[in-house]
Specification:
The complex is a heterodimer of chains A (about 625) and B (about 300). With about 625 residues, chain A is α/β, with parallel strands linked by helices. Chain A folds into four domains: about 210 residues, Pyruvate-ferredoxin Oxidoreductase, domain 3 (3-Layer(aba) Sandwich); about 190 residues, Thiamin diphosphate (ThDP)-binding fold, Pyr/PP domains (Rossmann fold, 3-Layer(aba) Sandwich); about 60 residues, no CATH class; about 120 residues, Rossmann fold (3-Layer(aba) Sandwich), CATH 3.40.50. In chain A, about 40% of the residues lie in helices and about 20% in strands. Chain B is globular, with a radius of gyration of 21 Å. Chain B starts with 17 loop residues before the first helix and ends with a strand. The chains are: A alpha/beta (about 625), B alpha/beta (about 300).
Chain lengths: ~625, ~300
């Protein structure tokens, strides 16, 4: 029997219950021992515009998504229009029979540009400009239509209604029935999803039963799906994972100004200002909670975080491109005054406001070069949930150990990826603090008596010293002396050399897969797990590929990257930007030019099918740059 | 041994600068209060006023232009046991940093803002600052000032500061008293300090101010302190009216004090009960072996599935 591997898409109006629908599906399959992997896509809009969740259900933990999807759940007619081309032969589409009368011109929430694209697709196939046109297209390519009379089913099973409130539940129920999940597990999922609202469980169970019954009547019910034993897991997205890592890593001060896709991290932290600590030893320690401050702007956010760090507290802020632009001067100040601060940079599509809710990896070079003047900073990047957790912990360590700003990059796709995490190892990362000042009598904050460039860290509240954004002497007083200037510049640089020397190679870069391979992919961020999946797929076709995965851009593992690339066959750089920025960083550091790239800048997540297709094209047709276009 | 709150650095302000009086008033206030020198810190922005922390023998941060308030709030909230003095010029506080000035009123974190007001940007050679009146022509600007002025007192009151006062750089004892009152006040304070800039402002000179300023404290009927919510409207109105007096007679002293507005540290301790007992800077963050003391499967229970 082939292993269950289902790609599905739940679409509907923003604010119209798709999250709830996906949540029920997630919970049910999680409790049946499956893994789930999903990405949420939405407009910069509160209510009404099209949003969707692209999900994959598989026993072995998936790291990528695929088009065409196997099942599509349309909670509104817009979903059928928007995702017309995201299904193929054998795909099943669950939708409300009432949509069948809907005209394209009635879909006012579809943006005009998307509307004209859909119109073109229909007209091109000589199909009417309405849902019937789309359905005709589906039938012509062999898609199975699962037309459910939503109101009728809900009213029959839950006469008290109101039916509209249960569309999402019916969609979820029908999906689970079609996949073949037994109704007991479906019910467990519902109960779990609504565990904080027990009053609504009963009614939702009735609607799910209605869905199961109807699918059975239609003869679409699948064989009973295999279920597996379950261990506790956490359903996390990138925002959650970073927040968790920060708290585990001892963060006690966070600032933020609301911005997509960064705010969810701070919201989670705000929810846990009063923390729960481990039982036992922690009960005897001095513990309270963290302070989260929503500031007036991002300028305040970075500078307030810098200020807090002067007291020795672990301090950070989180933002996205536009806010990061405003933080540049504060990061430069932290560099000059050797303040340990972490800036979590959630990358979205730019420039300017760009694509506020969509993916992008175009701020890498900006992160590396942010802030005026020359000063040391670290730039690190995560690619999956576990890395988000551990890298957030490491960032706090690095910032304090090397006394410099650390920029931790997460792309929007990763921030909004849902993944089941089986384990977070409390003993994986040790909490490392700054070297504490012990000379309180004649303290020189910027002592030059150091081989590493690192001077002992004193804190406001215990030590008297000065800091200034001006060039300064060892005490932190302003100087413009030529010799002191040189010494201080060199001392600051030395810290980065120390970090480069001390940080192990596998914290900077990782080579996954066979050493000698036909293809060497290079990537960073959310494409990590995608390419690991792609490598497995290629292997099935007899193609060997490996992945040079970059986790740290400053300091950069130049020698190792150079060595790997010099011995590589076909090298393909994969990034969600237009200018192949990581490839530029590699060229800058090693002199090696990477010829091939797969790039995507339409703001949507890369999918497995398009990676495989474009790889094939590069190998066969020797095209150098493949630009990916998937997504709605 | 009595701590000397002046550092041994040479001051490089112009002779006759009002900043000297402010520096003296600060050191005097700190000495009078007998504060533990490690428990009081000075934070400044950019400009002549920005150099003040270097001249004080306490921990000091000379930060970015306009950003002294965010830095001070970071320090204060991470360690609320510290007394935090903030020094900023009129350009620093009301020009580039005006957003922070207003926002800090909403927080009321418990920092003491000393607003050096000489109506000019001194260090960049005397451009008009946000407190210079419309049409004023000082010698350093090529044409009369084309902007109207901000009155920092009502701005501070409207923003939510719970202690708002005005001092004068040559009334050192009076200013020192105001600073002491502010340091002992739980919420955030703004003290606007009128001061001459002898190099660039030849209109609002030392003599100009001397002839005009009078102390509100000399009028025994002046009571700017809100003790309960019922008094709030009347006292706010009084403070507002008083702050508008300008011309031949300029009042200095406390304009408005409202002890019914809770400080931000108080608001935080309502959310995190042990916040004041173990502030962020004082907490243990790892166990004796150096590992995390927080298990995400226990803390983030809403994300757990089993």
């Amino acid at each position: 029997m082939q292993e269950t591997d289902i790609n599905l898409l739940v679409g509907g109006p923003q604010g119209g219950g798709i999250d709830s629908s996906a949540n029920m599906i997630n919970m049910a399959f999680s409790l049946a021992g499956y893994n789930i992997f999903g990405v949420r896509e939405f407009h910069s809009n509160i209510k009404g515009r099209h949003s969707y969740i692209h999900l994959r259900v598989k026993h072995e933990r998936p790291g990528s998504l695929k088009y065409p999807v196997d099942i599509m759940v349309a909670l509104d007619p817009d979903t059928l229009f928007e995702h017309m081309l995201d299904v193929s032969k054998g795909s099943k589409i669950i939708y409300d029979s009432a949509f069948e009368k809907f005209e394209l011109k009635q879909a006012r929430m579809i943006t005009l540009d998307t509307m004209s694209r859909i119109r073109y697709e229909l007209e091109n196939r000589k199909l009417p400009l309405n849902i019937n046109g789309v359905l005709e297209y589906f039938k012509s390519v062999g898609v199975i239509l699962v037309s459910l009379p939503f109101d009728k089913i809900i009213n029959k099973n839950l006469p008290e209604g109101p039916a509209t409130r249960y569309y999402n539940t019916l969609g979820a129920g029908a999906t689970m029935a079609i996949i073949g999940l037994d109704i007991e597990h479906a019910n467990d999922g519902i109960k779990y999803a609504f565990r904080k609202k027990p009053a609504v469980i009963e009614s939702n169970l009735k609607v799910v039963k209605g869905g199961y019954d109807f699918i059975k009547e239609m003869g679409l019910e699948a064989e009973n799906l295999e279920v597996y034993p379950v261990k506790p897991r956490m359903l996390l997205n990138g925002n959650d994972s970073v927040a968790i890592g920060k708290l585990m890593g001892g963060l006690r001060f966070q600032t933020y100004y609301p911005i997509t896709p960064a705010s969810d991290e701070s919201n989670l932290l705000e929810n846990h200002e009063e923390m729960k600590f481990l039982k036992g030893e922690a009960e005897k320690l001095k513990t309270a909670g963290l302070v989260v401050v929503q500031t007036e702007d991002e300028i305040s956010a970075i500078n307030m975080a810098n200020g807090a760090a002067l007291t020795g507290v672990r301090s950070s802020t989180a933002t996205s491109g536009p806010g990061f632009s405003l933080m540049s001067e504060g990061i430069s100040y932290a560099g000059m005054t050797e303040i340990p601060v972490v800036v979590t940079l959630y990358m979205r599509g730019g420039p300017s406001t760009g694509l506020p809710t969509r993916n992008g990896q175009a701020d890498l070079l900006f992160a590396i070069n942010t802030g005026h003047g020359e000063f040391p900073k670290m730039v690190i990047s995560s690619g999956d949930m576990e890395e988000c957790v551990y890298d957030a912990m490491k960032s706090l360590n690095y910032a304090q150990k090397y006394q410099m700003p650390v920029i931790h990059i997460i792309d929007k796709t990763l921030a909004n990826t849902m993944d089941l995490v089986p384990e977070i190892d409390l003993k994986k990362i040790k909490i490392e603090k700054y070297e504490e000042n012990k000379n309180h009598e004649d303290y020189k904050r910027f002592s030059l008596n150091t081989d590493t460039g690192i001077s002992p860290y004193g804190v406001f509240g215990k030590d008297i010293y000065w800091i200034t954004g001006d060039e300064h002497n060892e005490y932190g007083h302003i100087t413009e002396d030529v010799s002191m200037r040189d010494k201080m510049m060199e001392k600051r640089r030395k810290k980065l050399e120390t970090a480069d020397r001390e940080i192990p190679l596998n914290d900077k870069v990782e080579l996954y897969g066979e050493k000698n391979a036909d293809i060497t992919y290079i990537t960073w961020g959310s494409q990590k797990t995608l390419l690991l999946d792609a490598i497995k797929e290629l292997k099935k076709n007899g193609i060997t590929a490996n992945l040079l995965y970059i986790k740290m851009f400053v300091p950069f593992a130049s020698d190792y990257v150079e060595k790997v690339l010099k011995n590589a066959n076909t090298v393909i750089d994969v990034e969600s930007n237009m200018n192949a920025q990581a490839a530029q960083v590699i060229r800058m550091n090693t002199g090696i030019k990477i010829e091939n790239s797969i790039l995507k800048y339409n703001g949507r997540h890369m999918t497995l099918d398009e990676i495989l297709k474009s790889t094939k094209k590069i190998m066969k047709e020797k095209t150098e740059v493949e630009v990916l276009e998937n997504g709605s | 041994m009595v701590h000397n709150f002046r550092s041994d650095l040479t001051v490089d302000w112009c002779p006759g600068c009002g900043d000297f009086g402010i520096l003296t008033a600060i050191t005097k206030a700190l000495g009078n209060m007998n504060l533990d020198p490690e428990k009081v810190v000075a934070i400044s922005g950019i400009g002549c006023s920005g150099k003040t922390p270097h001249y004080l023998n306490i921990a000091g941060a000379h930060t970015l232009h306009g950003r002294s308030i965010p830095y001070s709030v970071g320090v204060k909230l991470a360690n609320p046991n510290l007394k935090v003095l903030v020094m900023g010029g009129d350009g620093d506080m009301l020009g580039i940093g005006a957003g922070h000035f207003v926002a800090e009123g909403r927080r009321n974190s418990g920092v003491v803002i000393i607003l050096y007001n000489n109506s000019v940007y001194g260090l960049t050679k005397g451009q008009a600052a946000p407190t210079m009146p419309l049409g004023e022509k000082v010698k350093s600007i090529p044409r009369p000032n084309i902007f109207t002025k901000i009155n920092p007192i009502p701005l501070a009151m409207a923003s939510g500061y719970s202690f708002v006062a005005r001092g004068f750089s040559s009334e050192i004892n009076h200013l020192s008293d105001l600073i002491q009152r502010a340091v002992n006040h739980e919420g955030s304070s703004v003290i606007e300090v009128l001061q001459p800039c002898p190099t660039y402002n030849d209109v609002n000179t030392l003599d100009w101010y001397r002839k005009r300023v009078y102390k509100l404290e000399d009028d025994k009927s002046w009571d700017p302190i809100v003790k309960n919510k019922e008094e709030e409207e009347e006292k706010f109105d009084n403070g507002y009216q008083m702050s508008l007096k300008w011309g031949d007679h300029i009042p200095i002293g406390i304009m408005y004090e409202n002890n019914t507005i809770p400080s931000f540290t108080k608001r935080l301790s309502d959310i995190v009960p042990n916040y004041l007992k173990y502030p962020p800077s004082e907490q243990d963050i790892s166990d004796s072996e150096g590992y995390s003391i927080l298990d995400p499967f226990e803390t983030f229970i809403e994300r757990r599935i089993d």
